[in-house]
Amino acid sequence: MITTVTLNASIDKAYRMTQKVEYGTVMRVAETHNSAGGKGLNVARVVKLCGSDTKAAGLVGGYNGQYLESLLDADGISYEFEHIEGETRSCINILDPEYGSTEYLEPGCQVTPEEEAAFLERFPDLIRDSDVVTISGSAPRGMGSDIYKKMIRIVKDEGKKVILDTSGEYLEKGIESMPTMVKPNQDEIELLFHIKVRSREDVIEYAKKIYEKGIPYVVISLGGDGALLVCEKGIYQGRPPKIEVVNTVGCGDSMVGAFAVGLERHMEPEEALKFAVAVASANALSPLTGTFDTAKRDEIIKNVEIIKLSDPERE
Ligand SMILES: Nc1ncnc2c1ncn2[C@@H]1O[C@H](COP(=O)(O)OP(=O)(O)OP(=O)(O)O)[C@@H](O)[C@H]1O
Ligand SMILES: O=P(O)(O)OC[C@@]1(O)O[C@H](CO)[C@@H](O)[C@@H]1O
After folding, report:
1. ipTM, interface predicted TM-score of the complex
2. Mean pLDDT of 281-293
3. d(CA 197, CA 225)
4. What is the enzyme's main class (predicted)?
């Protein structure tokens, strides 16, 4: 069982435009799609598509919160949310032929210290029957920047594996509790180390710095170039074949979902990397967020290249 945690859940609205977006004009949307969003809910859909049991946890509130639960019912995903006073946010992804995807992310409502404390108190029960827990995305306003650090400590005290996918201070503090895996992208590495990444060597160097802090699996997603994995067995790159991308929103979440399944099934690191790259690339072929066609994943996986870049013990 994989529990996915989303503190800053959202009603994700995907707008498909048939014409290029022109600022300062009226734009009519050709098609809309609403989904239960916030990174962890995309992870939950991907885990389910991979054939593993999943439960979504986190915070929801207001009419949007109720709507989000009904969307999860329609997706057949079970959930146990802490209900809060504030209204669950919306995030908009505009897909147009010129620019591809442009996202507008609301910050999320205000959470009170009492609501945060109630969630943390309930958290050990929420994860009791899980093998792997994923913690994804931003946190809504009012929550302490050490919230993920505290949650990771709880998951580890329960003897479970935990993947953290977040950015900024939440990532910096979360790393201090040494999650099983982190999955920053290049931008998140730059934010974490206050540097500008100039080459693939830089990415490897900073990934190793995170690994050396005691994180067993450090995955850096590289968009169309796939992902790097630093672990005890070495440093690997997983490279997808060239594909006709439709929508890359949720690719990182798809990668997290697939790695959670890999950890649950005790896959070897190279096998998990190959699987995760294929799932994430299949998500890029779908106009929807956090979903993919399993037949396309099975086609892509045949052409995912796994390259061993080095063996950390020898460096
Ligand atoms: N253009 C692409 N072609 C093929 N695969 C892609 C492409 N973009 C993303 N992917 C797949 O998705 C994975 C994650 O992508 P990316 O690095 O964009 O994640 P991210 O930045 O964390 O995403 P998110 O926008 O969800 O935060 C890649 O490792 C790759 O497998
Ligand atoms: O504000 P966060 O939590 O960092 O990101 C939210 C979000 O952009 O992430 C997902 C794509 O990864 C979308 O479902 C959602 O709208």
Report:
1. 0.97
2. 94
3. 15
4. transferase
Q: What is the DSSP letter of 52?
A: -
Ligand 1 centroid vs 240 CA: distance in angstroms? Answer: 10
Q: Distances from the Cα of 234 to the Cαs of 17, 165, 185, 206, 252, in angstroms?
A: 44, 21, 19, 15, 22
Structural domains of the chain sorted by starting position, each given as residue range(s) with its CATH number in brackets: 2-314 (3.40.1190.20)
Ligand 2, atom 11: nearest CA belongs to which residue? 250
CB atoms within 10 A of CB 51: 9
3-state per-residue secondary structure call for 156-179: HHCCCEEEEECCHHHHHHHHCCCC
Q: Whose Cα sits closest to atom 1 in ligand 2?
A: 138
Residues 6+ apart with CB under 8 A from 290: 35, 37, 41, 42, 43, 44, 45, 46, 250, 253, 254, 257, 283
Q: What is the mean pLDDT of residues 230-249?
A: 95
Residue with tokens 């049991």: 53
Segment 142-150 shows an average pLDDT of 97
Quote the Cα angle for 168-172-178, to 5°: 140
Strands 10-16, 89-96: pairing is parallel
Query: Are 313 and 302 spatial neighbours (Cβ–Cβ below 8 Å)?
Result: no
Across the range 62-82, mean pLDDT stands at 98
- Centroid of ligand 1 to alpha carbon of 113 (angstroms): 35
Q: d(Cα 180, Cα 190) in Å, to the nearest integer?
A: 21
Contact 10 CB / ligand 2 (< 6 Å):
yes
pTM of the model: 0.96
Residues 106, 90: Cα–Cα separation, whole Å: 6
CA distances from 209 to 130, 167, 262, 304 (A): 29, 16, 24, 26
Tell me the percentage of the chain whose pLDDT exceeds 70: 99
